[in-house]
Design brief:
The complex is a heterodimer of chains A (about 260) and B (about 300).
Chain A lengths: L2 E2 L11 E12 L6 E12 L3 E5 L6 H8 L7 E6 L5 E3 L11 H11 L4 H14 L15 H16 L7 E5 L7 H18 L2 E6 L2 H7 L2 E5 L6 E6 L5 H24 L1
Parallel strand pairs in A: 4-8, 4-9, 6-7, 7-8
Antiparallel strand pairs in A: 1-10, 2-3, 2-5, 9-10
Helix pairs in contact in A: 2-3, 2-4, 3-4, 6-7
Chain B lengths: L3 H11 L10 H15 L9 H29 L10 H11 L4 H33 L1 H16 L6 H8 L3 H25 L4 H8 L4 H38 L9 H10 L3 H33 L7
The chains are: A alpha/beta (about 260), B mainly alpha (about 300).
């Protein structure tokens, strides 16, 4: 069945990964100012997989950057209940001068971990994304999908220190990949998510991807970005899934069309 | 390299009608493994070392042989008097006459150790300078254009000033070398930092790098190709500046380097001496490029999958 939630998913305070309250972000000053986000309230539970959906220019990426502390909100507050969030971008952005294993090791090195610990953790993470054999390869020797998996392992290395729950922020990480690779990587991501128990905030503009991956899909409006609607999409049967996809698509179209009128 | 039969199996697995449902785990795994095997770029087959050497060494050797043959022929035709165009053999004899006494080694050493030492000082001065110019906007707009201007100023123009400041000694020479090399190395590093894709520092930040750690683990390695190009140019400028300084400033305290040797040839109207000096200057330049910078540059670029160097 389709569940359109009137109220945000109730969650007790203790098992939250991140909470955004009245977050507002304005770029520029005076007449040239652009309001990217306005009054965004969002909660992600510990271990929850939330997909953030919206048309271009709705501030999805801005929102993620705020949570990742790459940028500061103009107003409102962002409360992180986890260790430093792991971030993945649309490009793998691996350091081209480091091997895959060294790339995964980099955040551990930055955190000052010892050599033996770094080695062990790196091997573990490469194994998690099934790239144990490719540790010595350089980024240019890997395919796009393999690079994104290295980037996932590196992101996880930056956050999960083995204790507590983590938060994984993903900014359209599969958008630049071909259909089959994307399919495989979505499966991998779900597997890694289950294995690590980490919460995920996944930004995408692909409705089908959002419904397939997420437990909850959050639709943002554009300029300024606001939370318009949410769907709980966990445990849907295939037929229901198609129905939700159609419904979300319709809502997304509505949001986009409203801009043509304005 | 994937064998053709591997490719067929993988395509066979992947092609059944695409479903919105995630495929069963087993199938997904084999599709994933197939994708990895197919997608990973395969490099060209390695060429044996001797063949690579032959390919690299042959063309220049042929060119040099042809050049000497033309020279010999021009000399034999006697278009110009002997004091303008000596025979190749006369130049060789002039050079060879310096070798047994150790004078050749001493001349080379005098110049080369100055150039290397001056270059190293230039690196030490230019690296922090480049970092500051690249990262501090005020400094960049204040002295960036000046550094670029200095790069275009022939450093030989500093020789008279340096001689008046320091007298005819090593300090004057190093001053000229530094003024020649520092702007090149600085600008190389600034260009290297400017060309870093902006995503890399952002990644560094989300991975938890502070300012210093980011400079050491991300900024400097990412800027290395540009920095290396600057170093190479900086070396060329130090070598040129040194020769200019040695040629103009001759004095008892300055030792007897390649520039002085060249100047001696001019003073004595000894053309074989002049040409031997020019060739030595050229050979040192080429040797440093081939033995130091080329392998370094190749290693750096190859590690990043860049560079069309053969």
């Amino acid at each position: 069945m389709t569940a359109t939630l009137e109220a945000p998913v109730p969650s007790t305070d203790t098992d939250l990964a991140v909470r955004l309250g009245g977050v507002r972000k304005v770029f520029g000053h005076g007449a040239a100012a652009v309001t990217a986000l306005d009054g965004v309230d969002l909660e992600v539970g510990a271990g929850e997989f939330v997909c953030l959906l919206g048309a271009s220019g709705c501030g999805k990426t801005t929102l993620l950057n705020l949570v990742a502390r790459l940028d500061e909100p103009t107003a409102g507050d962002i409360e992180l209940r986890t260790s430093r969030p792991a971030v993945m971008f649309q490009e793998a952005a691996l350091m081209p001068w480091l091997t895959a294993a060294r790339n995964v090791e980099l955040p551990l090195r930055l955190a000052g971990a010892g050599r033996a610990e770094r080695r062990a953790r790196t091997a573990e993470l490469l194994d998690l994304v099934r790239l144990s054999g490719a540790g010595n390869k350089r980024p240019h020797e890997l395919s796009g999908g393999m690079r994104q998996r290295v980037a996932l392992a590196r992101a996880l290395a930056s956050t999960l220190d083995g204790r507590g729950s983590g938060l994984l922020l993903m900014d359209e990480p599969f958008a630049a990949l071909d259909a089959i690779t994307r399919d495989v990587l979505q499966g991998e991501l779900l597997r890694v998510w289950r294995a690590t128990g980490s919460a995920v905030l996944f930004v995408t503009h692909d409705v089908r991807e959002a419904v397939r991956l997420g437990q909850r899909v959050v639709l943002l409006s554009s300029r300024p970005g606001r939370v318009v609607r949410e769907w709980s999409v966990t445990g849907l049967a295939p037929s229901e899934e198609q129905q939700v996809v159609d419904e979300v698509n319709a809502a997304l179209r509505e949001v986009i069309s409203s801009h043509a009128a304005a | 390299m994937p064998r053709p039969e591997d490719a067929e199996t993988t395509v066979g697995l992947a092609s059944p009608q695409p479903s919105p449902q995630p495929s069963p785990d087993g199938e997904l795994d084999s599709v994933g493994a197939g994708l990895d095997a197919l997608d990973a770029p395969t490099g060209p087959r390695p060429v044996p070392a001797w063949r690579r050497f032959a390919r690299a060494a042959m063309p220049p050797v042929v060119a040099i042989v042809v050049l000497i043959a033309v020279w010999q022929a021009l000399w034999a035709a006697a278009f110009w008097p002997e004091y303008k165009l000596p025979a190749p053999l006369a130049v060789w004899q002039e050079f060879w006459s310096l070798v047994p006494s150790g004078q050749a080694a001493s001349i080379l050493w005098t110049s080369l150790h100055r150039a290397v030492f001056g270059f190293l000082i230039a690196v030490v001065v230019a690296t922090p300078l480049g970092l500051v110019i690249a990262k501090v906007p005020f400094v960049r707009s204040a002295i960036g254009p000046m550094v670029t201007g200095l790069q275009n100023l022939p450093s030989v123009a500093w020789v008279p000033a340096a001689v008046l400041w320091f007298g005819l000694n090593d300090a004057a020479i190093y001053c000229v070398v530094l003024l020649g090399a520092v702007p090149s190395i600085t600008n190389g590093l600034v260009a290297g930092i400017d060309q870093i894709p902006p995503i890399l520092p952002r990644v560094g930040k989300v991975l938890g790098a502070g300012r210093l750690a980011a400079a050491r683990h991300i900024l400097l390695p990412a800027a290395l190709p540009g920095y290396l190009a600057g170093l190479k140019q900086g070396w060329a400028f130090s070598w040129r500046s040194l020769m200019a300084a040695e040629l103009i400033a001759v004095g008892p305290k300055l030792g007897f380097g390649l520039g002085a040797y060249l100047e001696q040839g001019r003073a004595l109207s000894e053309m074989p001496n002049v040409i031997a000096a020019i060739l030595l200057i050229l050979i040192v330049g080429i040797a440093v490029e081939l033995l130091a910078f080329r392998p370094l540059e190749r290693a750096v670029l190859r590690a990043r999958g860049l560079g069309g160097l053969p």
